[in-house]
Amino acid sequence: MSGRVALVTGAASGIGRAVTERLRADGWTVHAVDVEDGDLTTREGNRAVVEAALDRHGRLDALVPNAGFQHVAPVREFPEDRWDALLAILLTSPFLLARYAWDALKASGDGRIVVVASVHGLVASPFKAAYVSAKHGVVGLVKTLALEGAADGIHATALCPGYVRTPLVERQIPQQAQVHGISEEQALEDVILAPHAVKRLIEPAEVAAAVAFLLGPEGRAFSGAAVPMDLGWSAR
User: Fold this and answer.
1) Which of 11, 21, 46, 76 lies 20 to 30 Å from 211 when distance is taken between CA atoms?
2) Would the pLDDT of 33 be above 90?
3) pLDDT value at residue 230
């Protein structure tokens, strides 16, 4: 993939860091973006990171919108500002990145968009109204991007992993153990991994490998799809 340039958001840790490392190892030039590079909850921030990538590298062949966070609360208590922020980063940011990068992706001749969505784009869980809504929305966005992008040589895919071994997930283990009065091992298997048919966390490197596949030559048949990698969660 020498000479091709990808923009990856949320690149400082977890999935984003693993994707950045994998793509660089595969020969990509990666424009890695995190919170200090631009506020992706704003139009200006999204435009700025795309323009920075183009100014620095002169081209853009792929987008990997990955940045995000989580907030857990029942609907009647869900903070309205957290709703706004989650939809901004998880749904509006991928739209804006695609909009601002569209001409560059078209000029690439083989533009790719792989949104790191979630199994929560396919199923729901309680107390995660904003996250679930945004992830369902981004799956719909990807379908639209794929249909509109077909004539311009742009492929768009949503990758939908289950629980991944990231700092965000790992911080939940001792919290759940304390709340339920059980060991951390029990909290992981009986609470966090309860929806997984296979009781383990997905490793960031596994998600990165799937992104690399979808961005590579073998991924050219994928567009408009929500690709689950959820260890059996959505099979229930």
Assistant:
1) 46
2) yes
3) 97
Whether 100 is a known active-site residue: answer: no
pTM of the entire predicted model? 0.95
Contact 22, 1 (CB under 8 A): no
Q: Are 24 and 16 in contact (CB under 8 A)?
A: no
pLDDT at 50 over 90: yes
The span from the first CA to the last CA of the chain, in angstroms, equals 37
Mean pLDDT, residues 74-87: 96
C-beta separation of 168 from 147 below 8 A: no
Asked if 62 contacts 220 with a C-beta cutoff of 8 angstroms, the reply is no
Cα–Cα distance for residue pair 116/202, rounded to 1 Å: 14
Choosing from 131, 163, 222, 233, which is the catalytic residue? Answer: 131
Q: pLDDT tens digits for 187-221?
A: 999 989 999 999 999 999 999 999 999 999 999 99
Per cent of the chain over pLDDT 90 is 87
With beta carbons less than 8 A apart as the criterion, state whether 156 and 149 touch: yes
Separation in Å, CA 164 to CA 21, 34, 94, 202, 224: 17, 19, 21, 4, 23
Q: Domains of the chain by range and CATH?
A: 5-165+202-228 (3.40.50.720), 166-201 (no CATH)
For residue 90, report the phi and psi dihedrals to the nearest 5 degrees: -95, -25
